[in-house]
Amino acid sequence: MLNSKKVPRTYLVARITVFAALSVVGSFIQLPSPVSTVALDSSPGFFTALYFGPLDGFCVFGLGHMATAIVHGFPLGILHLPIALGLAVAGAAVGIINKRWHVFPAVAAGIAINTALVVLAIPVLGMAATLSFIPSLFLAACVNGALGALVYVAVRRRLRI
Fold first, then answer.
1. Is-contact 95 58, C-beta < 8 A?
2. Residue 28 CA to chain centroid, in angstroms?
3. 93 within a domain of the structure (yes/no)
4. Torsion angle of alpha carbons 25, 30, 35, 41, nearest 10°?
5. Containing domain of residue 28, as a range?
6. In angstroms, rounded to a whole number, what is the distance separating the alpha carbons of residues 42 and 38?
7. Does 101 reside within a domain?
8. What pLDDT, on the 0 to 100 scale, is given for residue 95?
9. pLDDT in tens, 75-128
10. Domain for residue 160, yes or no?
11. Global confidence as pTM
């Protein structure tokens, strides 16, 4: 993995930008949900956090969410800012837990944080709609986490980025 070496800043920025852009691409692969923003947009964030570590995970999760929100017209309004910050923290947590323990607890933590952020939608959606949104958000977080983890496990010893 590259985090053990000194990576040029330009390379780091380009890498984060590419994976954040992949988040936008994934946002167009939507999963069934009452809210249209449930999609495969977190998979690149999971992979990046697992492969490159907490800093990259923080940036890709946060920037990827904001880019996705912009492309889709900010359906939750200003609440996308705290959601992006929460997802960024999830990305950092995934990277830290993966380095310290293993990929499975790291992905589980990312899924838990991602799903818990649904409480931020209560002011926009209301309590009943937010509660009905939890199963689809949890399912999407699981799919995103599993996809990111599968790619990470498949390439972790072979990929040199």
1. yes
2. 15
3. yes
4. -40
5. 2-155
6. 10
7. yes
8. 95
9. 777 778 888 899 999 999 999 999 999 999 999 999 999 999 888 888 877 888
10. no
11. 0.87
Nearest alpha carbon to residue 140 among 16, 7, 36? 36
pLDDT tens sequence across 50-76: 999 999 999 999 998 888 888 878 777
Q: Residues 93-115, buried b or exposed e (16+ Cβ, 10 A)? A: bbbbbbeeeebeebbbbbbebbb
Closest CA to 22 of 74, 55, 59, 73: 59
Give the Cα separation of 92 and 148 in Å (integer).
15
For 43, phi then psi, to 5°, come to: -55, -45
What CATH number corresponds to the domain at position 31? 1.10.1760.20
How many domains are contained in the chain?
1
Angle at which helices 80-100 and 43-52 cross, to 10°? 40
Encoded tokens for 72 = 């889709």
Residue 161 in domain: no
- Token pair 């890709």 is found at 60
